[in-house]
Each structure stands twice: as structure tokens, then as C-alpha cells.
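COMPLEX REQUEST
Ligand: S-adenosyl-L-homocysteine
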Amino acid sequence: MCYAIPGRIISIKGRVATIDYFGEKRTASVIGDLKARAGDYVYAQGGIIIDKINQDEALAILGTWKERFFELKKKDMDTLTRGRAEGEIASVLEKAENGGFLSRSEMETILKTQDSGLETLFGTANHIRSSELGNSCCVHGILEFSNYCKNECAYCGINKNNTKIKRYRMTIDEIVERVGYAVEELGFKALVLQSGEDDYYTDDMLIELVKRIRERYGVLLFLSIGERSFDSYKRLYEAGAYGALLRFETSNPKLYTLMRPGKKLDDRIGLIKKLIAHGFVVATGFIIGLPGTTEADLINDILLTKSLKPDMYSFGPLIPHPDTQIGKMKTKPVSLNLALKTIALSRFVDPKAKILVTTALETLEKQGKRKGLLAGGNSLMINLTPEQYKGKYDIYPGKTQDQLFDESNNGPLVASADQLDIKTQDTIRETLDLLYSLGRAPTDLGR
Ligand code: SAH
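STATUS: Structure written out below.
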């Protein structure tokens, strides 16, 4: 299994290498103490060279990919359909497709689109995705290593006041072992290590963890551990964790403090900006549909994400959790169409963005992943948390639904622990089948 295609460095200027993938040229940076020179075969993720690979192995992998690479490209082209919209939305979409700058009222028109206009809206976003970035689709793995959290976020099921959930922490040995399985057995080249804000793991422990992983595996590690000091993040970067997933949650400062008691939006944004300036590969974004949010807020959320210039957009619909403050309020559920419109609008606003189709979309609807990929999305994450912990990382209900779905009757299935581990592999296979059926190559070629 392969989630990255090796490329050949054709030239290096300073720390920036130009890499060839079957004739396509992309750039990636050489970081840390990796020695790379023209002629080397390398894996790149998020614009960073994460590993070298010997020529024989690279040529063997490229041999198995060559035909498929071009077949998939053709298939992607074949899936590019567009209905024909009428009225105001038609002219807004034409402008978006021609690279025009959309006004706020045009963005609102997009978010208000209903019924027959949706097909053209999503189809146009899919066209732009294909013409700007081709058919590559990042597939990252995510490992949720602790559900302890010191925060009281009003939306999140693992908030510290939820006494109903069983808490767990993986040991450093367990995390290293699971990462090894994900990289060596399952073929992942980029992994997110996520947890609540859990001070049990000191900086030194996390640094040891990152070093142990990076000594053994060529993988781009993203940390998704919430707010720590910039100094802590810098040390973690030096240890080899070059990525961070840190959403700002909402661009509305008042709502932010209401949703995250004791916290300030400026602090979160300040940290995200520092991480990006330091060279971290950052994924950031927001939650769609927090209580009281308007279309104007959603547009601000998208524009703030763009202004941060992250490597990847990560946003998803609010799924109310019964054991949270929000769960106890009557919050209007977010429709799948609004989530898809947010993907499409983000694609218009930032045509070259990597836009993650989050698992929360699948919680809304089984076809959510597919529909997100056809509405402008081009990145996915697969949950690789070990079966005994999966389900306990209960930030929102129905999160592991994809692991619990029985294809034969489309109904929920009560599965035993070892069936669930098989389900992880099934999810990977289903995801690859989905990508191939849409003509997408499960690889991050970068820009
Ligand atoms: N502690 C880390 C990781 C938090 S969980 C951090 O602070 O960054 C990852 C993301 O899940 C959060 O950033 C939030 O955007 C999302 N999330 C939490 N609860 C949710 C819910 N009920 N519905 C949808 N998304 C939710």
C-alpha cells in the first residue's frame, strides 16, 4: 500500500528541491539534517522532504504506479461534470471559475444556493480543484493518543467536565508502536498525533516521543495537542515534528471565549501565526455552525483561514454532543449541503488550497466523504487509533460510525474489539476504492 509516490530530485537551490513525478514538477524543502542531492529519490509531504528512498526500491514503486497514475488522471477528467445553473448563481460561478475576486455578497449568494444550483456549484469547485491541483489527494492517518483534557470547550465531548466518558492515555511505547504499524504495515507517510490538552505529557516526554519516531520512520508528524507555548512547539519542531493541526475554531472573538471559557482568540491565532512563520506545516480552520453564527461569520472563518496561508484547510460541521453545554441547548444541526458549500466556497476563495474532507462529514451522511471530494475537497484523514481506544475519543457522537457501518443493510453494527481492528483496514481499503473510483491518486505531490 502506498500513500506517497517517490519523486526524483532534479535540482536543488538552497534548501528548495525541484522534484519530478512522471513529468510533473513540484517543489519541497530540505529540513533538519537530511542530506539530499539532485538524482536522489525522495518522499515529500506538505512541501517537506521527509525521507529518502533507494533508487531500486523507488523505481519498483514507480513502475507499479506509472500506468495507474495516468489512468487515474483520465478518470478524474471524466468525473468533471457540471449542470447548468440559472440566474444570479450562474454569473457568480462563472466569475469564480475565471479566477475573479468574489465580493461578500457573491459569497453569500454561494452559501444561499439551493436545489438545482448545487450541482453546478459543487461541479465548478471540482473543476477548479482539478485544473489547479490535479488529482492528488493527501491521505493522512490520525492517532488519538489521549482523551484527557484540561479545557471546558462547550462543543467538545472530551471536555474536562464530562464525567461520563472513560479516560485513556497511550504510553510513549504504545504510541511509537502504533506509529510503526501505521508507517510500515499500512504505508502512511503523514500522521497526526492528536489528544486533548493533556499536561500529563510534558514537553520532554513529547520530545522523546517525536525523536523516537523520527529516528525510525520517514513520516511527516503533525501534532494536534492544542495550545502549548511557542517555545515548546519550537523544541518539538527541532525534534522532528514539522506539522501542527490547530484550528482557531471560530473567527468571532466573543463567540470564541463563550465556547472556550478562559481562552482568547488572539492567543490561538497568535500561536498559529508563529508556527507558520517558524516553518511548521500547518492545518487550521474552524467549526461550521457554532450557536449564533451567521453566514457573515462563516465567510469570515473562510477568509481568516486564507489569510493565515496554511498548508491545509481543516474545518467541519458541529455535531452536538449530548454531554456538552451545546448538547444541552437546542442547536440547529448543520446540513451536509452547508458543509459542502463551505468546501466549494473555500475552493473559490483559495483555488490552490488543500482542503480536508473531515470525518464529521461522514457522520452527517455515509456519502459525505465522496460528496466532499466532488465539491472541491482534496485531502482525507483515516482514523488509526487502536481499537481499544477508538470510540473513547468521543469529541462528537457518531465519530467512528464509519467503522460501525454494516454495508449489507446500511445499519449500525455492534462489533467486537478485534472486528474493529479489521474495520480499520477495511476503512483504508474502502477509502482507496473510493479514491480510485473518482480518479484520485492517494498521494501528496505538493505544489
Ligand atoms: N486539543 C486539540 C485537539 C482538539 S479535537 C486542540 O485543541 O486543537 C480536534 C477538533 O475537533 C477541534 O479543534 C474541534 O474543531 C473539533 N471538534 C470538537 N468537538 C466537536 C464537535 N462536537 N463537533 C464538531 N467538531 C468538533
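REMARKS: The radius of gyration is 21 Å. Residues 129 and 376 are 6 Å apart (CA to CA).
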